[in-house]
Amino acid sequence: MGTTLDCDMRVAYTVKLFQQTIVNYSAFAFYSQKPEKGDDASVFEFLSAAEWRLVTEMEAIVCSIADLARIEVQRSGLVASELIVLLKFTANRLIGDMFSLCDFDACRNTTTTVKSFPRHAVPVDELSPLAHTCLARMKGQVEQRIAATTAETVMILLLDPRTKFSVNSLIQPSIRGSDEEGKDGGAAEDDEADDTTERIVAAGNKLLVDAHREVFCAMNTSTTVSAQTQLQLRRRTWILFRVQMMRR
Fold it and tell me: Model pTM?
């Protein structure tokens, strides 16, 4: 995983603005009916019902990747393997058949928050054309990051006990060719993706084995030191090795 990009944070905070606007929609509507002196009452009317619905659609589509960007900067103890899992979860949500949209007509009170706001499921086919454009762009961005997986990424997953048994599924593209194209062409793309995944996993395994070999060779270079000194050297070397792997 690369570092958080500035565009990721702009997306994250734009979604946060969407959410706060949806929650406070009724307050905006009431204020537009009785604006303060100097405010234009027609400002609220510039947005049509279709545009307000588009806000809820974009919030539902972009919310998962926005959460990923916010989590990445807010949790200092988050390790790289968790980010890869979250990215895969985001990709799986984007290829789903249903999206959970906020309900503009829902009742609100002083304790209503973004998390407690009522939502309703909407099939992806019922989304507006602009929402489909947004969805296609988000899929491309997320899949591009998953496709950039390297042997170092595999090694990070192998070092984490929670992910070492699911490496293949985590780095495999969520969007399969057979779902979008003809059977023959889609199957060929799927086979190529599987071969690429196997090569990357094999390279990651080799990288991890080589790294372990270097560590154990370093632990046994000196035969004159005492057993206690060797044990301390092994502990320090292993801790340093794990820290370096997590930083990658």
Answer: 0.63
